[in-house]
Amino acid sequence: QVQLxxxxxxxxxxxxxxxxxxxxSGDILSINAMNWYRQAPGQRRELVAGLTSGGSxxxxxxxKGRFAISADSAKNTVYLxxxxxxxxxxxxxxxxVDLTTSRVNGLYWGQGTQVTVSS
Length: 119
Fold this sequence. Notes:
By secondary structure, the chain is an all-beta fold. Helix content is 0%, strand content 61%.
């Protein structure tokens, strides 16, 4: 069994910052990639940032220069530091982890955390 627990969402004014965390626990042999997605009401879920085990990172254009993804491999935790937040960043944020257990390799999702940016 694998569990992903997210934290760090909330309400912030435009220009503010939040830091999201996603901790993976359970039968984990290795983590291959860790990603953050978001979904705003009425919109498709989109990949916001990603980080591979080799250290390669990806950011959607709309967050480049404002968001930073990082990970603590000892804690199996991925972070998303969000600065200079804008109202259009309002969404439910989900972590997504590509990992290998003793039985399978698969993608796992966190429960989601709400981020609301007021203007």
